[in-house]
From TrEMBL:
Upper lineage: Eukaryota, Viridiplantae, Streptophyta, Embryophyta, Tracheophyta
Keyword RNA-binding on entry: no
Record keywords, A-Z: Copper, Glycoprotein, Membrane, Metal-binding, Signal, Transmembrane, Transmembrane helix
Source species, domain of life: Eukaryota
GO molecular function term, any single one: metal ion binding
Signal sequence interval, chain numbering: 1-22
Protein name: Phytocyanin domain-containing protein
């Protein structure tokens, strides 16, 4: 019986460690999801490594929305064939698989003005194949509003709280 308890504790601790590795990214950082300066969202996504399990959050006012689309619709700003539509103004989307995810604003003219983002998600496991490389876009000068960092992160805090709760329950069950 003690062996079963120990195995359960080990499994729960491992699960809590995995949960603590997820990062929450606010799309556009402090600017949120709005009509940007040229290439803002492309530059925003370029310096981040999105992993399976991470969460992206779109925060915006009622003059915007978020459409998940395929690559062709992303490239052409076609808003008529969305795979998913979000309209809450505070949309959290879990990145559940590796590959590319394409999001744009479906309000007329917003995508053409640059309100779109291409998220490449990598599989964090060492034996998973990488997604095929995407052709590099033409070089464009960097936006002066490029943010080189601060996205909200759930690393450590939620995982630590969850891990401590699991350990407390395991301790109370075993003793």
């Amino acid at each position: 019986m003690d062996c079963v308890k120990n195995i359960m504790v080990l499994v729960l601790v491992m699960a809590s460690l995995h949960a603590s590795m997820a990062t929450v990214y606010k799309v556009g950082d402090a600017n949120g999801w709005t009509i940007p300066v040229v290439d803002y969202y492309k530059n925003w996504a370029a310096d981040k490594t999105f992993k399976v399990g991470d969460v992206i959050v779109f925060e915006y006012n009622n003059h915007h929305n978020v459409l998940e689309v395929n690559q062709n619709d992303y490239d052409t700003c076609n808003v008529t064939a969305a795979l998913q539509t979000y309209e809450s103004g505070n949309d959290s989307i879990a990145l559940s698989r590796s590959g590319y995810f394409y999001y744009l604003c479906g309000i007329p003219g917003h995508c053409l003005a640059g309100q779109k983002v291409d998220i490449r998600v990598v599989d964090d496991s060492s034996n998973a194949p990488s997604p095929p490389p995407r052709p590099a876009p033409a070089a464009v000068p960097s936006s002066p509003l490029k943010n080189n960092g601060a996205s909200a992160s759930s690393k450590g805090v939620l995982g630590a709280v969850f891990g401590l709760a699991v350990l407390a329950v395991a301790y109370s069950v075993s003793g």
